[in-house]
Amino acid sequence: MRSLRYSSLALAAALSLTMTACGGDGDEPDTAAPVEKTDFAEGSRMKALADAGKLRVGTKFDQPLFGLKGLSGEPEGFDVEIAKLIAAKLGISEDNIEFVEAVSANREPFLQQNRVDMVVATYTINDKRDMVVDFAGPYFQAGQDILVAKGNPKGITGPEALKGKKTCSVSGSTPAETVQTKYGLTTAELVLVDAYSKCRDALSNGQVDAVTTDNVILSGYVSEAPEDFELIGKPFTEEPYGIGIPEGQEDFCDFINETLAEAAEDGGYADAFEKTAGTVIETTPELPSPRGCDK
Ligand code: GLU
Questions:
Q1: Same domain, yes or no, for 87 and 198?
Q2: Residues 172, 113: one domain?
Q3: pTM surpassing 0.85?
């Protein structure tokens, strides 16, 4: 086909017309998200993404409420909805988001190796990570907590009580680091795996006495099996969730922060929360103040 200079909106419309006309197998309902901006500056990261018409997003696949790829095969959760809001502002429909499973330890490498365009994956902003990637946001504030078996048979009341017990967490996560550096858990006491669902299963089987990570991740596991687990419910760290992007894309960082601010204004942010994490977590948060992109 000759290359005509279409805007991405016109191109998308043209393609969908072609597909309808051909009556091919692309006749599933078009769930294209609203397209608002197609006039990005030449050379900007947004222009490159909008022209590509595709967004690659690293997210979790095993964390109910934030990022879960369930039986439908479609990832769902608050992180997934945040990614959709950003894609929509780029003129990219949901169908053109490629969700890539990220575990905690491969979020920075995925961004550094250009495997994804952004990471929305219960990703705490901190200085160490900020040396190798950039963060837009925060868009949510979590806190580290502890999950135990129902009835708390080991009497675990807080992080100090984890000494001498077996606790599970995930490699490359801030909660794992905190229990080692701040609460002195040894390698014999701390079992590290790659994903939190493995910790949940180990707690279920009695292989560990506790699981530690962010309260909202643990709440998701409680909501799935309230007869098996309970949350201690005393968060002891601050975990501001950011949207990870590769270094040196300040324009994209500003764009994401503007998108979040607009979504907070027009109800899109609250709606994204209420239909996902908000089904279990009662209070819809306010969007936290942005940290700025000049870091
Ligand atoms: N928010 C923490 C982190 O980014 C824990 C959750 C996670 O590992 O995704 O390390």
A1: no
A2: no
A3: yes
